[in-house]
Structure formats: structure tokens, C-alpha cells
Design a protein that fits this description.
The complex is a heterodimer of chains A (about 425) and B (about 525). Chain A is mainly alpha-helical. Chain A contains 15 helices and 4 strands. Chain A has a 4-stranded antiparallel beta sheet with strand order 1-2-3-4. In chain A, α4 packs across α9, α4 crosses α11 and α13 crosses α15. Chain A is elongated. Chain B has 25 helices and 2 strands. The chains are: A mainly alpha (about 425), B mainly alpha (about 525). Chains A and B meet through α10, α12, α13 and α14 of A and α9, α11, α14, α20 and α21 of B.
Chain lengths: ~425, ~525
């Protein structure tokens, strides 16, 4: 029989009591022979999820099926468990249990949260389910364990109209036992294999950890023969020449979101403390993008509603008097722009900035003043030269003689010139 | 009484030869940079800073303060006489001042502006002294949330009070804040945006940004325009180069304009993020709305000169209040004065206000003396100041660039600072060229670290509870004001559109040059 919804018939009609099931040679037998079926809390949690869905008679028969090894095989695929259970009919029944798998996005969130705390990753890798793992899953609104009837879709080909039937229960119990051994199976049911999860955790933990800069790796003195003690007895305690070559670069550690880590988790309600940081990191990005998007939307709406020429202006803008004829004339006349002059000026400024170390303050300044005046339109060669040299000399006196600023001296012949000038003014 | 005594003590401090010399030099330099159209007041103060490195703390502060004060006046002379606004703040003077000159009343126009500067300057100095002590004692009770609120308010107000597009101002501000984050963060030591360059790990000094954007950027902008003077001088003969004082009855007739201008100047000055230029424009706007003879404004009315000029000078006293009592610079010039304080190992703030009373009151006294000295200089030195205009701008600009580099180099003797300046010079030029205001950029780099530190301190001391910013009464109300201030221009514009059917009285103007200048 295919999938059936449980109905009041389940309660009204006594359950169909089958004949003894056909024994299976090498079925999967539960390890627990009596009493508590599973050992760990998470497997227990799993079993408990089934209890309210079934009547106790079917449940106990399912348990005994599991213990007797009526289940032939179990195949776990993401989101789905398919199994064959040997019942009273010759042909084994096909049992199907479906769980809603998490989407990729939900998995990202869950993995982020798992990676967040070292204890989670460590426990998982140790084959244990972290105790508060459920909180992590609450963040994505998908429970790790099935809670409601809709969380678990079950299906059995047996004639029992109750669903879940005892065959389903048997598979379910055996699954619980497997979870005891391997909590990752639970994750696999939700859509991610053990390997994928471990790889993802490793990646996240590694990204979080400080990479050791390559420069820290000590240069080993390979190939250098250590001199014998007798050779260097006299300078054994002295510092070798190489010691001066040792340089230290102290790099600031660059933790991401240092502030968040420092201030910890605020006591807001409704916050999941486990993946708070990841949530905030995501939030930072999305708030930034959201704010920009909001601004764009605002700008578009503004243009549409208020008109294209709308520009809010500062308060000083409105305080001008109405323009008179002279103003209009000025406004109408686009000022002439001398782009070649501008380019030459910028070039000269940059040349000064980068060249002053080489040619020294005096020569650089004299040259700069002369050339800049020339570019600016003051085209009298003699005056320009005098102003440049004189101005540079006066500035040199003021700043090196009076204010004792150590201005660049330049290199080569320029240094000779600078030093001669300094001697002249008595520095 | 104690305040007066302290002030007298400060005056006595100024009377030493060195300090007096610093005062005179500062006054003259301030006038010069104000007169030269290529050199703004802020840039002048920046360029003067390296000369004060080797001075004592008193002459250094006196020189810079005097420069700041007298820089608010010099541009008036050229604006009235030649239609050349030496400073952005003098643009409103073109409308009434130059109109009077065309009528042949140049001397009288100069007289009005001189009296306005004197009244505004002295009145704001008095308010500054009176206000500082109570503000400092309130600020003593401030904790990091309040300081955060004040600095955030300053950041917002520079955007709100800017001249052009609000979006551009915001972009500029955010860029400034971004620059401020470069380097190792003070609280947790995280390295930000250094890209492996050691000189970026130390962060980018706001001084370098200022020198680059204001100094080199401005020079490049004017170079591209071929150093052409903004207007041709066609001053009317006769009354030129002379100041004639208006009759007392005429002055009393426009006492309302004095009052409004001065009050506007002080208030706008106190607001971090706005300085003399904004005060002058705001005061002129207020005069146009509420003045007795508002209709005559723009056609040579003395009230227009008085409102703009008194506000510009009065803003100095206002701007000194947050600087000296809280250590928060509200404008480019005060940021430089703050830098001078810091260079001499003094961190202005409520504690310093109590502990080094003498120094603070010397600065106060220097404002009084500078206002008077400025007026004396403004009365007698018109002719030589106008001669300065004959200096070829190409040569002046060449020296400005060299000064920019020396100034920055002298601060730390670090060659990489020169690269930073050159880069920000280009940035400043591009900002100017494409109408992004520079003031928010600079203020972002100045106030950014302060804002961030106060924010982080709050977060640490209040258990990461960001609501304290809004639940504490003082910081809550300041932040509310900031939020309202940020959205007010948008609402205002929407409202204006909504009412667009009505005849427009105040047309938005589009003139290129002054539009550009207001941003500073």
C-alpha cells in the first residue's frame, strides 16, 4: 500500500495482527537486546520524535523487528532513507523515510555557526554531537530532529494502513542506533555528507586562525659550517656580523571584526549566541549594501516624484540675492580653462615633491618658483630667475637658520651647493 | 569680577614686546591673506602655523588669533572698492558695498563695514568671555556620549550649511571621514586602509589634508583659470582709499542690522562646522527677510554691509567658545589654532579652562586687542593693502605652494607627508572643479577621529548600549537637532517645489564663481 494518512480508523480498528514475519538470514540486528534502545542523547532525541506519531503497540513491534534483524538493508541519502524490511509476505516491504534537507544557504549559516565555536568542531570531529547544536539549527528555522508530523514523510509498501507502521518504526530505531555511532549521519540526512561538513569546518576554522607570515619562518643556516670552538673562543660571546642583519618587522595582527569579538554578544533577546558573530558579519555587509540600495531607491523616487531638477541644497545656498545683469553675464560666460597650464602645474608640483630629495631644498625651490611663475603667465626671464633664487635663499635662511627645520640637502653636486649655502648663512 | 581680573591679566600678558610683535605680525598677515583673492584666510592661517613651531605658546596663539580676526576684515576693502572679494565671506559685500562705490559712496561704505566689524568683533568677544565659563563648567559634566553628540552635530551642520548640492556635501563629508579612519585605530589597534605603507599606518594628519586641499588645490584651480582676476577694477575716482565714518544717527537708524548680524555671527560661529562665510551669508539672508528696509538690499543699502560684516567678524568670538571650552574645532581656522595648542602640549577642553586660566584669558584678551588693532589697521592701511593686489598672482601662488610643502615638512620632517599633500592637492582641485565642497572633507578629517573616539569610549563604558546617545538628555537633544538639521534642507526644498506655483521672490542663483566660493 502506498502512502496513507493516519486517521481515526487507527484508533477505531484494532491493529491488524500479522502472522509471524519471515526470518532474515543476515538482516541488520539491533545491538541493544532490551531496555533502552540507544545510548546517546541525540539518538534518544531522534527516537523520541517518532513516539508521538505512533501507537505504542506498533512501536514495540517495530522495536522487536529491529532487534530480530528483520531489516535487510538501509541506505541513507541526503534527505532520504530507503530500506527493505522483511515482513510476513515473501517480498520485503520497501520503506521510505524522508526528511526535509537544508538548502545550501541554510547549510552555510549552520556551518558558520558550527565553525564559530571551537568546541563544536572539536566535538563533531570526535564523533559527538555538541549539546546545544539544536540552537544552531533553530537559526535557520529547520529543526535538526523531526518535531512535527510534517517533518517526517514516511512510506511503506506493507498492507498496514497505519503510517508510520511497524516496519517504518524498525528502520527508524536502527537509524537511531546508527546515530549513536555516527552523529554525522544525522547531518547527511539533512543534506551534507560527513566529508563535506568536515572540509567546510576546516576551511572556516583556518580562515579564522591567524596565518603565520612566511617571513616568520626562520632562515636556517643551511650549508654554513659552524666553526670549531677553538677557532672562535676569543669572540664566542661577541655578536657576529650577521647579527646586525637581523631585522624585525612587527606586523599588527589583523583579526577580522575585532570589535565584534572584543565586545562579545550583547544580551538582546532573540539572538543566537552561537553564531552571533557570523550573523553580524553578514549583517554588516548586507546593511552596507542595503543602505546603498535604499539611497539609490530614494534618489530614484525623489527624481520621479519631485521632478528631475530637485537637488536639496545647503542652507547657505538660498541666501543669495537675486542675480543682477552683471551676475547673469558672468554666469553665461563659461570661464576659459587652461588645461595645458594646469597639466604643467600639476607636473611641476609632482616633480618638486619627488625631486626635492635629490636636488635639495634650495635648488628645488628656486627652480620651482621660477618655473611655476613662468607657467602661471609671469614671463620675464630675469625677474623670474631673481625671484626664484632670492625667494629660495630667504626661505632657506628663515627655516634653516631661524627655525632649524632640517630641509632636504640633495645628493651629489646639489649637496655640495646646499652645504656651501649653509656655511654661508652660518648654520 | 574675577573674569575681568583675568582678562586684565591677559591684556598685561599681551603687552610684552614679543607678544605685541606677534600680534602686529598676525594682524598684518591676516589682512594680507584676506586681501589676496588667491589666498583665503584659512589657508593663510595654515601657512602661518609652521612659523609658530619655534615660538612660545603665547605668541603662537596670539599670532594665529590675530590673523584669524583681521582676516575677516581685509577682504571687505577690495570687495567694496574693486569688486574683488578677497574672501568668500566678502561676497555679500559686493552686492551693497560695491553698489555704494558705484554711487560714489565708497568711503562711506568702508566706514560702515569698519564700524560693523568693530561692533561685531567686540560684542562677540564679550559674549565669548561671558559664555565660556558656564559652557566649560557644563562641559565638565560631559561624558563621551555628549562629546560624540557635539561632534556629530558639527559634522551634520557643515553639510546642512553648505552652499551647493546637499548630496555633494555629504559625499565630501564621508570622504573626509574615510580619510580619518586611515591608520591604526586608537581603541583596538586594528590597522585600517594602510595597504602596507608605513606612513599610512600613522594615519593621515588633518593638517596635510587641509594644506593640500585648501592650498595646493586652490592654486591649481586658479592656475587652470589662468590666474585671471575675478572682476576688473574700475573703482570710482575721488573717494578711493579713504574711510569716512557714517554719522551716529545713521548708525542708530540701522541698529537692528547690527544686532541681527552680530547675533547671527555669534550663534553660527558657535555651531561647529560653520564659520565666517556661512555667518555672513546667513546674516545677509536674515537681513533680507526681516530687515526694516529689506527691499533696498542689494542696491547699496548700508544695512546689507553691516549685517554681513558684523556677522563675519562676530563669528570669530563664537567659534572660540567650543574650541576653548570643549576642544572641538568648528572650522578650518580654529582647527589650526587647536593644532597650535596641541603642538605646545596643551589640549583645550574643560579641564584646561580651569587649570591654565591664564593662557585661555590671554587668548581672550588677544581677540579684543586684535579686533581693535584690525580696525586701526583697516583705517590706515587701505592704500598699501590695495597695492598688494598688484603682486603677480603667479609668483604669489608659487610661494604659496612652497610654503605648503615647507609647513607640512617642518611639522614632522617626513618626506612622505609631501606626497600626501600633493595627492590631496589634486583631490582638492577635482572637488573644486566638480563642485564638491571642500569644507566637509576637511571637517570630516578633523572631527572624524574625535567622533570615533568618543563613540568607542561610550561603547566600552556603557556596555555597548547605543541607546545611551539618545536617552541621556543633553546628547539626546543635540543628536535630535543634528538629525533634524540633516533632513531640513530636503524638506525645505520639497516644500518650495510644492509651493512653486506662487511667484518666486528669492530666485536660486547660479553664478559660477561665488557659488564655488561659498563652500569654503
Amino acid at each position: 500500500m502506498a502512502k496513507r494518512r493516519s486517521s481515526y480508523y487507527d484508533d477505531y480498528w484494532p491493529s491488524y495482527e500479522p502472522t509471524q514475519p519471515i526470518e532474515v538470514e543476515d538482516g541488520i540486528k539491533a545491538k541493544s537486546k532490551q531496555g533502552k534502545f540507544v545510548q546517546t542523547w541525540w539518538a534518544d532525541r531522534w527516537i523520541k520524535a517518532l513516539t508521538p506519531l505512533m501507537d505504542s503497540a506498533r512501536l514495540s513491534r517495530g522495536r522487536s523487528y529491529a532487534r530480530r534483524g528483520q531489516v535487510i538493508d538501509i541506505q541513507v541519502k541526503p534527505g532520504q532513507v530507503s530500506s527493505r524490511v522483511q515482513g510476513s509476505r515473501p517480498k520485503p516491504y520497501k520503506v521510505n523515510i524522508q526528511l526535509l534537507p537544508l538548502s545550501d544557504g541554510q547549510w552555510e549559516t549552520v556551518l558558520d555557526a558550527l565553525a564559530e565555536q571551537a568546541i563544536f568542531a572539536a566535538q563533531l570531529l570526535n564523533g559527538e554531537m555538541p549539546p546545544n547544536v539544536e540552537e544552531v539549527f533553530q537559526a535557520v528555522k529547520v529543526p535538526l530532529f523531526p518535531d512535527k508530523r510534517g517533518d517526517l514523510q514516511t512510506d511503506c509498501s506493507c498492507p498496514d494502513w497505519a503510517n508510520p507502521c511497524k516496519h517504518i518504526a524498525a528502520v527508524y530505531y536502527l537509524l537511531g542506533e546508527r546515530f549513536d555511532q555516527d552523529p554525522f549521519l544525522l547531518f547527511e540526512l539533512r543534506g551534507r555528507s560527513k566529508e563535506a561538513i568536515i572540509a567546510a569546518l576546516r576551511e572556516r576554522r583556518a580562515a579564522e586562525a591567524e596565518p603565520v607570515p612566511a617571513s616568520y619562518a626562520a632562515d636556517t643556516a643551511e650549508g654554513v659550517e659552524a666553526p670549531s670552538l677553538a677557532e672562535c673562543l676569543d669572540r664566542y660571546w661577541a655578536m657576529g656580523e650577521q647579527a646586525t642583519d637581523i631585522t624585525f618587522t612587527i606586523a599588527h595582527p589583523q583579526p577580522s571584526f575585532a570589535l565584534l569579538k572584543r565586545v562579545g554578544v550583547p544580551a538582546f533577546q532573540g539572538l543566537n549566541p552561537n553564531n552571533f558573530q557570523r550573523q553580524m558579519e553578514r549583517l554588516y555587509d548586507s546593511v552596507t549594501i542595503g543602505a546603498m540600495a535604499a539611497l539609490c531607491v530614494y534618489e530614484i523616487l525623489k527624481r520621479l516624484l519631485v521632478g528631475t531638477s530637485f537637488t536639496a541644497t545647503g542652507l547657505a545656498q538660498g541666501l543669495n540675492r537675486p542675480p543682477d545683469d552683471a551676475d547673469r553675464e558672468l554666469a553665461a560666460r563659461e570661464p576659459e580653462r587652461h588645461n595645458s597650464k594646469l597639466a604643467a602645474g600639476i607636473g611641476l608640483v609632482l616633480a618638486f615633491v619627488f625631486g626635492v630629495t635629490y636636488v635639495g631644498f634650495f635648488a628645488g625651490t628656486a627652480l620651482f618658483i621660477a618655473l611655476f611663475s613662468w607657467i602661471g603667465g609671469y614671463r620675464r626671464p630675469v625677474s623670474v630667475a631673481i625671484i626664484g633664487l632670492g625667494g629660495a635663499f630667504v626661505l632657506l635662511v628663515i627655516f634653516m637658520r631661524v627655525a632649524y627645520v632640517s630641509l632636504p640637502l640633495g645628493i651629489g653636486p646639489f649637496k655640495t651647493l646646499s652645504l656651501a649655502l649653509l656655511r654661508l648663512i652660518g648654520v | 569680577m574675577e573674569v575681568l581680573l583675568n582678562l586684565l591679566h591677559g591684556l598685561a600678558n599681551i603687552a610684552t614686546p614679543v607678544n605685541l610683535a606677534a600680534m602686529v605680525i598676525g594682524l598684518v598677515l591676516g589682512m594680507l591673506v584676506a586681501v589676496l583673492p588667491g589666498l583665503t584666510l584659512v589657508m593663510g592661517v595654515v601657512l602661518a602655523l609652521p612659523f609658530t613651531y619655534k615660538m612660545g605658546v603665547e605668541p603662537a596663539l596670539i599670532l594665529l588669533t590675530a590673523m584669524y580676526v583681521s582676516g575677516t576684515y581685509g577682504g571687505a576693502i577690495t570687495a567694496i572698492l574693486f569688486r574683488i572679494p578677497g574672501e568668500p565671506m566678502d561676497v555679500p559685500l559686493l552686492w551693497d558695498g560695491y553698489a555704494m562705490t558705484r554711487r560714489g559712496d565708497a568711503a562711506l561704505a568702508l566706514g560702515y563695514s569698519l564700524v560693523a566689524a568693530l561692533v561685531g568683533g567686540l560684542a562677540s568677544a564679550v559674549v565669548m568671555v561671558a559664555l565660556s565659563k558656564p559652557v566649560a563648567s557644563i562641559a565638565l559634566s560631559f561624558s563621551s556620549p555628549e562629546f560624540f553628540a557635539v561632534t556629530a552635530f558639527g559634522l551634520v551642520s557643515v553639510v546642512t550649511l553648505s552652499g551647493g548640492s546637499l548630496v555633494n556635501a555629504l559625499i565630501s563629508l564621508c570622504f573626509g571621514l574615510l580619510i580619518a579612519t586611515v591608520g591604526v585605530d586608537a581603541m583596538y589597534g586594528a590597522e585600517r586602509f594602510a595597504f602596507g605603507f608605513p606612513f599610512l599606518q600613522d594615519g593621515i594628519e588633518f593638517l596635510l589634508v587641509m594644506v593640500g586641499a585648501y592650498g595646493i588645490g586652490e592654486v591649481l584651480s586658479r592656475l587652470q583659470l589662468g590666474f585671471a582676476a575675478e572682476a576688473t577694477a574700475d573703482g570710482s575716482a575721488g573717494a578711493r582709499f579713504r574711510t569716512a565714518f557714517p554719522k551716529l544717527s545713521d548708525l542708530l537708524a540701522i541698529k537692528g542690522s547690527f544686532l541681527r548680524g552680530t547675533a547671527t555671527g555669534i550663534v553660527v560661529g558657535i555651531v561647529p562646522g560653520a564659520g565666517a562665510t556661512v555667518s555672513a551669508f546667513v546674516a545677509y539672508g536674515i537681513e533680507g527677510q526681516y530687515g526694516k528696509n529689506a527691499s533696498q538690499l542689494g542696491s547699496g543699502a548700508p544695512a546689507g554691509i553691516v549685517a554681513a560684516k558684523s556677522a563675519a567678524t562676530a563669528s570669530v568670538g563664537g567659534a572660540m567658545v567650543p574650541l576653548l571650552t570643549m576642544g572641538i574645532p568648528g572650522s578650518g581656522a580654529t582647527a589650526i589654532i587647536l593644532a597650535a595648542f596641541l603642538l605646545h602640549g596643551v589640549q583645550p577642553g574643560p579641564q584646561v579652562f580651569v587649570s591654565s586660566t591664564e593662557l585661555i584669558y590671554t587668548v581672550f584678551a588677544s581677540v579684543f586687542v586684535a579686533v581693535i588693532g584690525m580696525c586701526i589697521l583697516g583705517y590706515f592701511a587701505i592704500r598699501p593693502l590695495c597695492k598688494v593686489l598688484d603682486a603677480p598672482e603667479a609668483i604669489v601662488s608659487a610661494f604659496v605652494v612652497v610654503f605648503c610643502f615647507i609647513g607640512a615638512f617642518a611639522a614632522r620632517s617626513n618626506l612622505s607627508d609631501l606626497y600626501v599633500i600633493a595627492v590631496f592637492g589634486l583631490v582638492g582641485f577635482l572637488f573644486e572643479r566638480f563642485r564638491f565642497p571642500i569644507a566637509p572633507l576637511v571637517l570630516g578629517t578633523i572631527l572624524g577621529p574625535l567622533t570615533e573616539n568618543n563613540f568607542m569610549t561610550t561603547m566600552v563604558s556603557f556596555n555597548n548600549d547605543w541607546t545611551v546617545f539618545f536617552t541621556r538628555p543633553i546628547s539626546g537633544s543635540i543628536l535630535l537637532l543634528a538629525i533634524v538639521g540633516l533632513f531640513y534642507p530636503v524638506l525645505r526644498e520639497a516644500l518650495r517645489r510644492w509651493r512653486a506655483r506662487r511667484p518666486v521672490e528669492f530666485t536660486l542663483k547660479t553664478r559660477d564663481s561665488s557659488d564655488r566660493e561659498q563652500h569654503r
